[in-house]
Write a structure and sequence with these properties.
The chain has 67 residues and is mainly alpha-helical. It is built from three helices and two strands, in the order ααββα. The radius of gyration is 22 Å and the shape is rod-shaped. The mean pLDDT is 90.
């Protein structure tokens, strides 16, 4: 009996885990799409026009905001 209960528990945990991951990939909440400044989390870095080095978009936002 305990082997059946453990099997049911394990399959249930698997379904909840896979379902949660699938839900986050299919329809992520707005808080996972952008940060508080409205920048997407996976935004690539941009090139500095004078030096050519890579600068993050968040650094640019802080610079122009005056932080």
């Amino acid at each position: 009996m305990s082997k059946i209960a453990m099997s049911i528990y394990a399959w249930g945990a698997l379904l909840v885990s896979v379902g949660g991951i699938a839900a986050m990939l299919i329809a992520p909440p707005p808080s996972l799409r952008t940060d508080r400044d409205g920048v997407a989390h996976f935004t690539p870095e941009v090139e500095h026009p004078e030096t050519g080095e890579a600068v993050s978009v968040n650094t640019l936002i802080r610079h122009y905001r005056g932080d």
